[in-house]
Amino acid sequence: MADLLEAVSAEAAGASPHGARLLALALREQGVTTLFTLPGGHILQLLDACRDEEIRVIDTRHEGAAVLAAEGWALATGEPGVAAVTAGPGFANGLVGLLDASAWSVPLLMIAGRTGYSRQGRGAVMDVDQRAIAAPAAKWAATCYEAGRAGQYAAQALHVARSGCPGGAYLEVPWDVMRTAPAPLDVTPGGYPDQPARPAAAPADIGAALAALARARRPLIVAGSGAFWSGAGEEIAAFAEEASIPVITASAARGVVADSHPWSLGSLVHGGVALPSADCVLLLGSAFNANVLYGAPPLFGAEQTVIQVDVAAERIGGNRLPEVPVVGDVAQVVRDLRAAWRGGSSEGAAWLEQARGLARASLGFWDQQIDGHSGSQLHAGRVARETAAYVRERFGGDITLVADGGDALAWALGYFPAERPGSLLTTTTALGTLGVGMPFALASGAAHPGTPTLLFTGDGSFGLTAMEVDTAVRHGLPIVVVVSNNAGWGDVRHEQDAFFGPGRHVASELAPTRYDKLGEALGAGGEHVDRIEELRPALDRAFDSGRCTVIDVTTDPTVLAELLRIMGSAGLM
Prior knowledge:
By secondary structure, this protein is α/β, with parallel strands linked by helices. Helix content is 41%, strand content 15%.
């Protein structure tokens, strides 16, 4: 907070810091390097102050994309993402990102301008009770009415966003507060820890978990998003080796244990087929929500011992009561398990091979569906599979993959690898937000400029944020976008076929748009693919060009992703 005090004391020398300057200073002191925004009159002072504080400002074409990009920043880096939007409609547009972050427990700060407090309730321009609207979608929501407390509020918002179970924080600052010079006594020295607390679990709970794992012959670890936010990957990988326990990574935790690790089963899509055969499941950092089929069959076995570990007590239980509940930071809990582990009854390599065989069979079934396709247009799963093979061969694990959509996302989840934390960005929250692809890709490109970024998306979801190609071009982010273009909302069409009869499609057809041409119009490169042998050369040209490129791939609209079929049969759609 020293810089904040210096800024206020400078007022006596004629400098006149204002609320926006203190806000920008606090962001910088909290380690914020990048802010996503779409400019508006209520936040201009903040954007100008960010320039002075050398905080990079990335301006998007829609406020929703700005806040989603901040969410993507958190998923790519493990640190809170920050976005600023103007009042009224700008605030409303940004809400989708705040809602998604809170639903998926992603640390994010959404700053919104607000009508000056002296004009609120008088019918002023963009005057809306924003905090009342934002509060249900946020972990924490506040309004700053004193310029001198702007920095304090920003620091508190970031602290809350990343502490305990992370979530979206909302801070609104009225226009006149942004412009007001504070009184020196308004600023309170002090600060928050650089990192959130990592609470240990009760020793008795650690003992109960150890006993259950030691008895198990077929134990299995499922690492959920909480494992990513706690930075638990190395501890989990080491414990898996020491205790002979296969590992599945899910949601934001994809890659915390690399898919290539000797004890990894990869994702829930295929590795999850082994879950019912496990006699003990160590669930790390995940609630019993739709992502894990509520902890119930067919994904979980009815007779299993389930150990649920989460930093937030309120996330324990819910749809299923775990036999062993453990409240504590995931990394700390696994560290304590390792320290006390004295061996168990695991079938070890034999169980690992059994589980891998089940996962291979699942993947093989998907391959059969793709290879048996006889349509004249490309199978979307084949495009996803070929794209995954290409990036493995060319980049290994040194690439960030982003996936978006319904049908397209489902195929990507089945084939895309994850070799490091933050290397596979998707919206796998039960909220099911579409259009995150381009914002997440922007964030990845900005956060890791030396690492290639590829987005695999459906045409419907791409259309929601396609103008962000312009953002990528303006900011020099060489994102490669592969659009699986089946000219419609694929999963919606298949649901309509199932519910109402074949061909009864309402509001689910789109034009066969050439998205490569759209990319070119926005200053990006463009490639069009109709045959599978054209895909790799198009990818080569895109990555070799060093610029944002949109690859439009015509795919068969009659194909339904196997994952969506499974979700439908499980009652999740």
